[in-house]
Amino acid sequence: MHDFIILDCLFPSGAAPPPAGKTNRAGQQPTMPDMFARGQPYAMSSPRFVQITKAMAEFVVVDMKPISTVEGKGFKHLLRTLDPRYKPVSRNTLLDRNIIPLYQETKARIINDMSRAVRHAFTTDCWTSAATEGYITYTAHYIEPESFELKSVVLETRNFKESHTAEHLKGDLLTTSSRWLLKDPVGVRDNAKNIEKAMDLAEIPHLGCCAHILNLAVSRCLKVSEVASLTGKCRKIVAAFKQSEQKTMALKNAEAALEIQVGNNFLTWLFFLDSFHN
Questions:
Q1: Of the residues 43, 80, 161, 263, which has the maximum number of CB atoms within 10 A of its CB?
Q2: What is the pLDDT of residues 109-152, one digit of tens each?
Q3: CATH of domain 115-213
Q4: What is the dihedral of CA 148, 153, 155, 159, to 10 degrees?
Q5: pTM value?
Q6: Is residue 183 a contact partner of residue 202, using CB atoms and an 8 Å limit?
Q7: Is the distance from CB of 134 to CB of 128 less than 8 angstroms?
Q8: Phi, psi of 274 (to 5 degrees)
Q9: For residue 249, what is the enclosing H or E element?
């Protein structure tokens, strides 16, 4: 849902893009200065240059692209094809002049939207990237008082360099709540002892995440001897097919012939394992 909030901030409903520039009336011959100007790059202060650069920043932000994309050969070729007079800015220029101000503008709008709520809740979690770097994410939840609509928005995902102790997490919880002006917040967390203690120290009411509790329960069930034996057989079958292209093709042909469809639904897999066990 937070994606829609950010999109609404960037592209308000009914907002029209600025005009690309004046054109001559139909049938009117262009003047020599007009013809000369068409071959010159846009000035950085021109409306068309500002419009394209702003659209580049929005493209990077909305689609979550690496900022280096704007310096790629293919992307520059695309821009030259669309408008040869536009000279792309560097990623550092785009970051300083467009993306950071865009973030600040969007943040101000989100805080203003959240300020209408009577109270806020938030979820938070610490996690480690593939590069073994620690991160922390905060997501706010609130009810819009006029429409009574539940809204959610990701406030932050950032590097967390300190050790994940309760004291460090407590300081981060209080700082983030203050920075985003959260009103009498209630926290939703996983069942790790450090974050539970941190919320106690910060005197923030908190609840355990139901999905995480369910995941823990299922994980324990999978350790039951009968279930573990069954999943072990399934792993061996999967390993056999992964190691042989011919077996995989034979399996796909058999599935197509028998019209078997195994999806990601929990009940589908439950029935699948039950039939395998029987």
A1: 80
A2: 999 999 999 999 999 999 888 888 999 999 999 999 999 999 99
A3: 3.30.420
A4: 150
A5: 0.69
A6: no
A7: yes
A8: -65, -45
A9: helix 245-258
